[in-house]
Amino acid sequence: MTMKDISFKILIDIIKYGYYSTPIINYIYKNNTEDDLKYYILLLKSKWKKDFKSAIFYANKVIATTTTTILRELARFELISLYVKNKEFEPAKKQCECLRNNFKNISEYARNLMIPGLKLLNTKYNILNKDFKAYSDNYEENNVDKAILKYSQAREYIKNEEYNKAYELFIDGYFLAKDFPHPTMMCNGLNGAAWWIRKVDKKKALIAADLLEYYIGYYFEDLNYIYNWFDTIFEVRRINKDIKIFECCDVVNAIYHNNSEISIDLKFMKFLFSPVTYYKIDNSLFQYMKNVLNLNDIKKYMTIQSVTLNKLIRKYHLIFSSNQPYEINNEIFKRQIKNLFEKNKEVFLKKTIDLSVLFLATYISYINKPKYSKLPLLKLIFKDDKNKIIKFFSANYEKMYFFNVMMENFHEKILIDNLLNKNNNPQTAEGCLFYLARKKLITELFKKPKNFKEFVFNYFKLSDEEMKVFDVFLRNCVRYDIKWSITPYPKSKIRDFAIKYGLGQKRIALGYYSFEDDERILIDEIIDKFL
Predict the structure, then answer these.
(1) Per its UniProt record, what InterPro entries does this chain match (predicted)?
(2) For 287-310, what is each residue's pLDDT tens digit?
(3) DSSP symbols for 212-266
(4) Which residues contact 192 (CB under 8 A, 6 or more apart)?
(5) Can you tell me the distance from the alpha carbon of 487 to that of 485, in angstroms, rounded to the nearest whole number?
(6) What are the structural domain ranges in the chain?
(7) Can you name the CATH fold of 143-264?
(8) pLDDT at residue 4, rounded to an integer
(9) Is 0.85 surpassed by the pTM of this model?
């Protein structure tokens, strides 16, 4: 593949999606034979990984080697942004001058890609001696550019503490980004909306935070990338006295334990669920029981059973509050798990439900996999012995929680309707939105599977490390499935895998090319085990 095979217009249509275009960019890179285009793709990938030193290196390689004006100036445009990020303003200004001199020689669609970024850089850093107005009269903003403008306007209102107006602009920007679609911009809008409106309307903040959590699960695997968004979700749930803060903390801690590069705030340790059956009465619990519940027959450091705390919760009609002792909140969360399990159990026993896909989708959605034995459970699920299935999942809180996530039938539309004020009483999921979104990706992938039982038993023969990589591959098959200017298709055994299990060749190709060259070697080895 060369630039003769794909036009620059098609290339620009792809890269305007930013990091989200990774599978298509990798597909082009693998099939490309021209060095300058390879350097340009490596520039983009380095930038998305925040490896700015490598990105600057590749930008200069493109400028030095290409004979194509558009590619050279696209690389120069990126170089300007990279220099600014490194606070190297003089080199940035020098490159701006070169770009301005060549601007008239660049096609309109290439200029349209650059103009909003140049304007934004100049607004923030004043790097242009003269603007590019002479060549931007025909500039037509796409929805991402419009979203960025909305967010910029929102920040002006924030300066004047006009949080409701800022919220409206953030939400307008989110809908523009969603229409594109641009996942990062979608989440930036919801994050800004939730964070700032929480100062004046915590319920509105919760509506935006719910949708933000759903999209984090649906679109993102780079868990370093999403920590700040989870910080917003935590704070919004805390001020709303929302018990789903336990689930937020569970996800963040699972991310932390699977990625040593991440450091997390200690506040995320305060609401971690524990299935313990008794507690030691520390000072916090002692003071609460004595001063709030007026109990005088207790002593510090004695133990108290969870059943005793449960009786107190029922007697005093206690509900979750972040200011209460951990022990009280943990027992309230336990009660919620148990009550929801009983509700889901009744639904399961009354309705005809095929658990096989739901079980696999839920299992794949988890970061830290459940520890229980899988093969006996798989046999139960495929036999559809409902009473034995219920007996298995009722054994402990971990299993009951898994069953609840598995049984939840939740749609993104409900959260969007909340945002549009279509629901008089805003509704949300009873399970963790992060996991429900990841589960949705897999149920969508396996809508019309073939040889499903064989697939499942092969999946559970994978090692933990293989499973972790393969889970991402399966989720990526759906999360990147939009209409692209180039449609990748799989070859050889990757194609055979798609056909054998009825998973869609385009989707499997997107999942495959979402990985880098060296990572695809492991995907190849895993797929061999399914053929």
Answers:
(1) TPR-like_helical_dom_sf
(2) 999 999 988 888 887 899 999 999
(3) HHHHHHHH---TTTTHHHHHHHHHHHHHTT-TTHHHHHHHHHHHHHT-TT----G
(4) 151, 154, 166, 170
(5) 7
(6) 8-135, 143-264, 272-321+324-359+367-405
(7) 1.25.40
(8) 53
(9) yes
